[in-house]
Structure formats: structure tokens, C-alpha cells
Amino acid sequence: MSTLQRSRPVKTVKTLSDYRTFARELLTFGFVGFLGTVITIGGANLLRHVLGGGPLTSVIVPTVASTITSYVLNRHWTFRHRDSDGTGREFALFFGLNGVGMVIQVLCTGFTYYVLNLHGSVSYNAALVAGMALGSWFRYWSYRKWIFTPAVV
After folding, report:
1. What is the mean pLDDT of the chain?
2. Where does the GtrA/DPMS transmembrane domain lie (predicted)?
């Protein structure tokens, strides 16, 4: 069995409780994402436009800060009812998968800045938001699949 998979019983019938759990997860994940967005966009704009940082460095630094915040909030709030093996595997996977999400963000910003040659604040922020949206979709999917898995009964 892969280290990324755990055996669990197959459930075919969804209960009202399953839908409530999913809705709560989605809402709290969204709130954590909102906080991460504030950290990332605010930090990127501070670094880029106030402190004069490079376009990609200005995405990477606040994204790392947002990732740390997101891990703590998602582990202890959004997905608190899901298993954790406590070995550091979850932590390593979380940061690895967030690295993929960050690459998605950096690619969107880099494409806009270097390929399309759009250097203005509006285009920078549009690329940042697009990259964050794509990266967030990937993160939510990957967290549910590999990190914050349902408790095995």
C-alpha cells in the first residue's frame, strides 16, 4: 500500500451528517483561505510595491507565511476530526503539496510578468488572484485526498 493511501471502509450512502461535515469543512477551509489570501496578497503588494521586491520573490515569501498559518488552522480547526498519525508525515505532505500550489501561483505571476510583459499593479494582482484560485483548488483537493483523511473506524 502506498504511503499516500490508507485503507478505509467504503461508504456508499451519504448521511445528513456527512453533508453537514462537508459543508463545515468547506466553510472553515474558505475562511482559512480568506486569511491566507489576505496574508499573501497584502504581503505580496507590500514586498513588491512598497519595499521594491522582485515579482516572484514577492509571491513566494508571503505564500510561505500563509502556508504556515493555514497548516495550523486547517489541522486544528477545519480538519480537526480527521486522522493524524503524528509522525510528521502529514506536515511534510502539507508543505510539499503547498509547494505545488505555490508553483501554480508563481507560474501565473511569472507568465503575466515575463511572457505577457504586463508590469502594472492591476495585472500583477490579477495574476496573483488567478494563481491563488488555481492553487487553492489544488490544495483543497489534495488535503482531502492525502493529508486530512477521514478517521478510520
Report:
1. 82
2. 28-148
Number of structural domains (the chain) is: 1
Q: In whole angstroms, give the CA distance from residue 23 to residue 57.
A: 35
DSSP secondary structure letters along 36-102: HHHHHHHHHHIIIIIS---TTHHHHHHHHHHHHHHHHHIIIIITTTS---SSSHHHHHHHHHHHHHH
**Collapsed DSSP state (helix, strand, coil) of residue 25:** helix
- The verdict on residue 6 lying in a domain is no
Residue 57 lies in a domain: yes
In tens, the pLDDT along 66-116 reads 988 988 888 878 777 666 666 677 778 888 888 898 899 899 999 999 999
Give the structural domain span for 38.
16-147
pTM score of the predicted model: 0.66
CB 145 within 8 A of CB 98: no
Task: In whole angstroms, give the CA distance from residue 51 to residue 11.
Answer: 52
The H or E element containing residue 111 is none
